[in-house]
Amino acid sequence: MNNRGLLDLTISLLPGLKITDRIYLLQVFNKEEDLFIQSKRDIEKILEHEIKDFWDISEVFERAGLIDTVCRTRSIKWVSYTDEDYPPLLREIFDPPSVIYYKGVLPNPEKSLLGMVGTRNPSPEASEQAYKIAGNLSRLGISVISGLALGIDAMSHRGNLIGGAPGYAVLGSGIDEIYPSMNRPLAKRILDSGGAVISEYTPGTRPSKWSFPARNRIIAGLSRSVLIVEAPRRSGALITAGFTLDQGKDLWVASSGVERSLKYDKSGGMKLVDDGAEIINSAKDVLDKWNIGDEVHLERENLAFGENKGELISTIAGFLRIEL
Q1: What is the mean pLDDT of the chain?
Q2: Could you give the CA distance from residue 159 to residue 134 in angstroms, rounded to a whole number?
Q3: How far apart are CA 249 and CA 244, in angstroms?
Q4: H or E segment at 234?
Q5: Helix (H) or strand (E) segment spanning residue 252
Q6: Ordered alpha helix ranges (H), 162-275
Q7: Cα 260-266-272 angle, rounded to 5 deg
């Protein structure tokens, strides 16, 4: 909790508000007491529009206190838009979350993150490429951020963990509601790496079909660039691609995501390339795009993964069994 007490958390819980409304109220009020004396009608006057939902400010404030208690008992931290620890890149997007909850350590704002996302039902070549690109970047100290979903997300996280860089995952559920549940061990490994699991949803929030598209703007917001590894025509990864372009960031597609296949739908990634997205073949391509290729040297792209090679093979096979 910051020195504003429960003010920011209370504002984040007021029903019926747009994200931009919440950010505005965070800037209008400085103390809990100032908000506590406001009626719903007073807030409507400040925002200059009607709010359809009803609330009792004392009840919302009480709920904020309960959530804060839950966070402290479950080692969940929260940071608001007004805090200096709030990720600066996230503050720059059009609709930043007023509060984010997290476990672990938030990304270092001085270090670039690569967003890596894609289909939950990947081809073997896309799974392998995601793992290798993320792994090679990790060995150079570059972290990947993704959504902890099955398929490409999980392969990207797993690859990134082998090189020692901290990993980052953004959830479409509360921090204590890891989804899918089979990725709970992966979430723990991300935390053990010195990274973080992040969400804009309060503890206890179950995932929904609306929460995943919304979380994609956070993945894009925290990334310097985003790599769509493989995506079918209808894919949540394409929503992330849209947010990436809206935020004025580089959008790339992995080479495996545009290879012709009779079994796997790659049309989403192909469409992105047709629309101008550049193709990434390796981790070195990422370094070159970021103009840091001369600062590091990859003797060969297919680094010897050693004991991790078995994990790569078993992980790919596991995902194919799960999702067929």
Answers
A1: 90
A2: 5
A3: 5
A4: none
A5: strand 250-254
A6: 184-192, 211-222, 236-246, 267-274
A7: 110
Structure tokens at 257: 């995501």
Which residue in 226, 273, 220 sits closest to 247, CA to CA?
A: 220
Task: Determine contact, residues 118/237, Cβ cutoff 8 Å.
Answer: yes
Percentage of the chain surpassing pLDDT 90? 79
- Name the DSSP letter for residue 303: -
The CA-to-CA distance between both ends of the chain, in Å, stands at: 45
* Largest CA-CA distance found in the chain, in angstroms, rounded: 65
Q: Report the candidate in 100, 316, 95, 96 with the shortest Cα–Cα distance to residue 203.
A: 100
Which amino acid, one-letter code, is at 64? A
Q: And the tokens for 109? A: 């704002």
Amino acid at 278: E
Q: Measured between alpha carbons, how far is 110 from 133 in angstroms, rounded to an integer? A: 21
| Predicted local confidence at residue 113, as pLDDT | 98
Q: What pLDDT, on the 0 to 100 scale, is given for residue 305?
A: 46
DSSP string, 52-120: -S---HHHHHHHHHHHHHHHHHTT-EEEETTSTTS-HHHHTSSS--SEEEEEE-PPPTTS-EEEEE--S
Helix (H, G, I), strand (E, B) or coil at 292: coil
